[in-house]
Design brief:
With 286 residues, this protein is an alpha+beta fold. The protein has two domains: 106 residues, Helix Hairpins (Orthogonal Bundle), CATH 1.10.287; 154 residues, Heat Shock Protein 90 (2-Layer Sandwich), CATH 3.30.565. It is 52% helix and 14% strand. It is built from seven helices and seven strands, in the order ααβααββαβαβαββ. It has a five-stranded mixed β-sheet with strand order 2-4-5-7-6. The protein has a two-stranded antiparallel ribbon with strand order 1-3. β6 and β7 form a beta hairpin. α5 runs antiparallel to α7. The longest helix has 70 residues. The C terminus is likely disordered.
Length: 286
């Protein structure tokens, strides 16, 4: 009996020690999460302030470079003109990068307004806004009947504009860009979620990419090509992911080199019993 009691006491003590360790680890985990959240918020604030402060000197570089080019038009040699053009183009690239960084880092404690968003109407507006870019690349944009989703109007517009623009930009030489937007009902029916979702596909016939980069392309500043090949800041798809995350959705991509790419958007449909207004989770403000 004494041996049994001793064994029980030992087991109880070991269990108590294990529980203390678990409590300590949980406490450390909560502290680490708290510190990580504070660090991310600080980085976002830094990115916003730094980007904002860079705007003014950059504007002056662009303005005075343009003035120099205009005033000294006839006296400039070919080399000087080429150097000035490089300064202006590089400054414009930096301005685009700063603007994209501002969009990516701009968050607000006030939640964005959520409502029913008719994607057919929204996409028609996006295509109208992109008319110059579409005509310049002689691109074809096709879309089928799309659902009404539960989201923020301006963020949805930014999301589809970025993805359509992406499909046009990364086209193959000598091949007319074709971007197709449609709803994949078969894939949507397989989504395991308490919230009814719809799966929207944005498909292009462009250069594609190696699927080993399927997750990396959504990382901010990640580029698979140099800006000499394709213009851009490397922020566009990161903004898309941030928007989709704010809508409690998912975004993924499949592709093969020279065979185009497909982006899948899993977005919530109107949730029954939830009034128009603010979402349950924290969103971003664009």
């Amino acid at each position: 009996l004494k041996e049994v009691n001793a064994a029980l006491e030992k087991e109880i003590e070991e269990r108590r020690i294990s529980e203390e360790k678990v409590k300590l680890l949980n406490h450390q985990l909560l502290e680490n999460n708290k510190n990580l959240k504070l660090t991310i918020e600080e980085l976002d604030r830094f990115a916003y302030v730094a980007s904002h402060d860079l705007q003014e000197p950059l504007r002056k570089i662009l303005v005075f470079s343009d003035k120099l080019l205009t005033l000294a038009d006839e006296s400039l040699s070919e080399d000087m003109r080429r150097y000035m053009d490089k300064i202006i183009r590089s400054s414009q690239r930096m301005q685009k990068l700063i603007n994209d960084l501002l969009i990516f880092s701009r968050k607000d404690s006030v939640l964005p307004q959520f409502e029913d968003v008719d994607l057919n109407v929204l996409l028609a507006e996006v295509i109208s806004d992109m008319e110059v870019e579409i005509e310049k690349q002689d691109a074809i944009i096709r879309y089928e009947e799309l659902p009404t989703v539960w989201g923020n109007q301006s963020q949805m517009r930014q999301l589809f504009q970025n993805l359509v623009s992406n499909g046009i930009k990364f086209h193959r030489d000598g091949v007319k860009p074709v971007v197709s937007i449609y709803c994949d009902q078969a894939r949507a029916s397989l989504l395991d979620s308490p919230v009814t979702r719809s799966c929207i596909v944005i498909e292009d016939n462009g250069i594609g990419f190696d699927e080993k980069y399927a997750e990396e392309i959504f990382v901010v500043f990640k580029r698979l090509h140099s800006y000499h090949e394709y213009e851009g800041s490397g922020v566009g798809l990161s903004i898309c992911k941030k928007i989709v995350d704010a809508h409690n959705g998912q975004i993924s991509a499949v592709s093969k080199p020279e065979e185009g790419a497909r982006f899948y958007l899993e977005l919530p449909l109107r949730q029954q019993g939830i009034p128009a207004g603010k979402p349950k989770s924290k969103g971003i403000r664009l």
